[in-house]
Specification:
GO terms for molecular function: ATP binding; GMP kinase activity. InterPro entries: GK/Ca_channel_bsu (IPR008145), Guanylate_kin-like_dom (IPR008144), Guanylate_kinase (IPR017665), Guanylate_kinase_CS (IPR020590), P-loop_NTPase (IPR027417). Pfam families: Guanylate_kin. ATP binds at residues 12-19. Strands 2-7-1-8-9 form a five-stranded parallel sheet, with helices on both faces. Helices cover 44% and strands 20% of the residues. It contains nine helices and nine strands. It has a domain at 7-36 and 96-201: Rossmann fold, CATH 3.40.50.300. The protein is an alpha/beta fold. Helix 1 crosses helix 7 (172-187) and helix 5 crosses helix 6. 28% of the residues are buried. It is globular and about 70 Å long. Bound molecules: guanosine-5'-diphosphate and adenosine-5'-diphosphate. Adenosine-5'-diphosphate binds at residues 14-20, 134, 137-138, 169, 171-172.
Length: 205
């Protein structure tokens, strides 16, 4: 049987640059790990493609999936559902390939409980002033919402201790390289590469 793949989870506070860093990783097109496309009830933005950026579905469809146990994790974020369809992750890991998730912090903790052998990477801002600056420059929120997000980020940053690695998103290219280094070194860990010698010998030996 093929060795099960490794689950890599990238998370961090809102506005830290998760989406930007993830896109930079997958733009390289040389990765030997698979991106799990999330499902959401938020409306597509101009240029976004169903089945590429997200699977865009109705609230009814999303809630039906939750009830049927079809989500590995999900969270409500700014009035919309976001979640990871379970079947793609299971099938890909079972085929021996590694899977990469980019999700917000509540979802990441659900995955941690279900898949403790996953690799959890927390993306941090260089500091809170820079985080605020990034939220302002993104231009998607007014000052009131930005201040609420910063207050929330302080709590979210405290969650860092539940992760295996912290990567500072100072310059996107540096963060990309550090995350790829983590993946490379995790693959070399003895507990991941050790062949199943006992299984090979059979039960009677
Ligand atoms: N829990 C969870 N969060 C997700 C998932 N997909 C995306 N997110 C997070 O949802 C948040 C909002 O994403 P999006 O609407 O694309 O906006 P943006 O990334 O802030 O521009 C981001 O923090 C994403 O990391 C998912 O499958 N599960
Ligand atoms: N390393 C970086 N340096 C400067 N700006 C960045 C960096 N990473 C991301 N940004 C900017 O910060 C804003 C938030 O990034 P985004 O990827 O939407 O965050 P998240 O997905 O974590 O909410 C965007 O305007 C993005 O262009």
């Amino acid at each position: 049987m093929a060795k099960r793949g490794m689950l890599i989870v990238l998370s961090g506070p809102s506005g830290v640059g998760k989406g930007t860093v993830r896109k930079a990783i997958f733009d390289q097109k040389t990765n030997d790990f698979q991106y799990s496309i999330s499902m959401t009830t938020r409306k597509p933005r101009p240029g976004e493609v169903d089945g590429v950026d997200y699977f865009f579905v109705s609230t009814e469809e999303f809630e039906k999936r939750i009830q049927n146990g079809g989500m590995l994790e999900y969270a409500k974020y700014v009035d919309n559902y976001y979640g990871t369809p379970l079947d793609y992750v299971e099938e890909t890991l079972n085929s021996g390939k590694d899977v990469f998730l980019e999700i917000e912090v509540n979802g990441a903790m659900q995955v941690r409980a279900k898949c403790p052998d996953g690799v959890f990477v927390f993306l941090t801002p260089p500091d809170l002033i820079e985080l605020k600056q990034r939220l302002i420059s993104r231009g998607t929120d007014d000052m009131d919402v930005i201040n609420k997000r910063i207050a929330k980020a302080v709590g979210e940053i405290k969650m860092m201790q539940n992760y295996d690695y912290a990567v500072v998103n100072d310059v996107v290219a540096n963060a990309v390289e550090k995350i790829k280094d983590v993946i490379r070194s995790e693959r070399l860990r003895v507990t991941r590469v050790m062949p199943d010698y006992i299984g090979m010998l059979g039960e009677n030996n």
